[in-house]
Amino acid sequence: MMFSNLTKIGWSIVFLVFAVPAIGMAQTESLDDLYKKARKEGGELNFYGTLAQINAAKIIPVFEKRFPGLKINHVDATADRLAARAITEARGGKVSADIFQMTLENILQLGDQKLVIEKLPPEAAAYPDNLKGSYWVTADLLFITAAWNTNLVKKGEEPKQFEDFADAKWKGRLIAEPRDVEILMGLARHKYKSDEKAIALLKKIAANNVEFHKGHSQLAEFLVAGQAAACFTCYAHHYPPRIKKGAPLGFMVTEGVASINATALAKDSPHPNTAWLFARWSASEEGQKVYAMGGRTPPHPKVEPVEKIRPAKIYPIGTEEIKNWSKYEKIWKDIFKLR
Question: Could you tell me if 233 and 211 are in contact, meaning their C-beta atoms sit under 8 angstroms apart?
Fold first, then answer.
């Protein structure tokens, strides 16, 4: 009887030894296997994305070359218009979009309308939690940070953090974008984890008589022309190209607030396997390197942007920040007396 029991136990162990690896080997389908399924869907992908044409022209052809026979139909517009179009199409009973890639705010809008699939590519496992949700993963990042004119800001006096702009030496020397409430949210919810501390800092900066102008490109040009010493709400990617052309500029890479462009799968899309393939490729290390070469700033931890603009400390504007947008926008406007 004992021998019989031991025999059974022995066979159980043998079964487990062979069964567990078999389970482990049931790995995620490869991109090449998924590509074979995508080929059967007609070879088209309807991409509702806000990629600027200068970037799309470098990124989309790489995907099409990597997966021959697949053609991306890039439906290009602003994020709000793309979201409105998708909502209108869905209400009309005809879904055209396969995949969305746009500002997180509008991705969440589509999520609220139940127009996306609650599904994340396995490649999203490499991303930190604040750069993905239950149905979206960050495609690329846009950083708001500080910049300055090196002829007007002496070496050694450059700002190292946002707190530096509270110093009275910046009075009458600062410019900013009036709509960049993200600065307040990034400081309040990430750096300080305190609304009161963030508000106190911005009130000190406001006391330095910040001059506001709409348009981040315009802010950069004002700095180039020496019409202001520094900007504390500037897009980091605007500066390397100007610096390469000899503009007297510097920008802060110690910390910055990140706006998110995210990817999500369209519900009931006409080409689901092709959409899944693109979602996985664009989130992968392979795809993110292409995005970087195409001029975007990759969120993937293992992929560096071509230009060194990714701050050491990042304060991302994610789901919770966007849900509280109106609250922080009101505070921002009150602090700087904006209409």
Answer: no
Q: Report how far apart the first and last C-alpha atoms of the chain are (Å, whole number).
A: 87
Alpha helices in 29-71 (DSSP H): 31-39, 53-66
Is 191:255 a contact under the CB 8 Å cutoff? Answer: yes
| Predicted pLDDT at 123 | 97
Alpha-carbon distance of 104 to 264, in angstroms, equals: 10
pTM for the model = 0.81
**H helices within 266-314, ranges in order?**
272-283, 285-293
Residue 27 — pLDDT band, cuts 50, 70, 90? low
Contact yes or no for 181/325 (Cβ under 8 A): yes
Measured torsion, CA atoms of residues 213, 215, 220, 226, in degrees rounded to the nearest 10: -30
Conformational region of residue 2, where left means phi above 0, alpha means psi within -120 to 50, and beta covers everything else: alpha
Task: Answer for the pair 266, 48: CB distance below 8 angstroms, yes or no.
Answer: yes
- Cβ neighbour number for residue 86 with a 10 Å cutoff: 25
Tokens of 37: 């399924």
pLDDT tens per residue, range 185-226 = 999 999 999 999 999 999 999 999 999 999 999 999 999 999
Q: Per residue in 85-123, pLDDT tens?
A: 999 999 999 999 999 999 999 999 999 999 999 999 999
* Domains of the chain with CATH codes: 31-141+259-314 (3.40.190.10), 143-258+322-336 (3.40.190.10)
pLDDT at 7 over 80: no
Phi and psi dihedrals of 315, rounded to 5? -115, 95
